[in-house]
Design a protein that fits this description.
The chain contains two helices and three strands. With 94 residues, it is of the alpha+beta class. The protein has a single domain (11-77), classed as DnaA, N-terminal domain (GMP Synthetase, Chain A, domain 3). It comes from Helicobacter pylori.
């Protein structure tokens, strides 16, 4: 929400990049904000193109009660969820 309200980020940039980030409060510390990106390409693009801007925005506005004024940003690829490939449907053709 902080990024969406920032005048330095267009609505298209927000929707294409920032809206796909998921904040990870469990990994975040007082001076580090961790985010998950859905894939490596998005992770690399946001870090390279928008990392400094994201750090600036978060340093001016506290995210949660535990982040300090100077915030470092870490973006990682979201962990994959294991799905059981075996079908649970018991179908018997007659």
């Amino acid at each position: 929400a902080l990024v969406k309200q920032n005048s330095k980020v267009s609505l298209i940039e927000y929707e294409n990049y920032f809206s796909q980030l998921k904040y990870n409060p469990n990994a975040s510390k007082s001076d580090i904000a961790f985010f998950y990106a859905p894939n490596k390409v998005l992770c690399t693009t946001i870090t390279a193109k928008y990392g400094a801007l994201l750090k600036e925005i978060l340093s001016q506005n506290k995210v949660g009660m535990h982040l300090a004024h100077s915030v470092d940003v870490r973006i990682e690829v979201a962990p994959k969820i294991q799905v059981n490939a075996q079908s649970n449907i018991n179908y018997k053709a007659t």
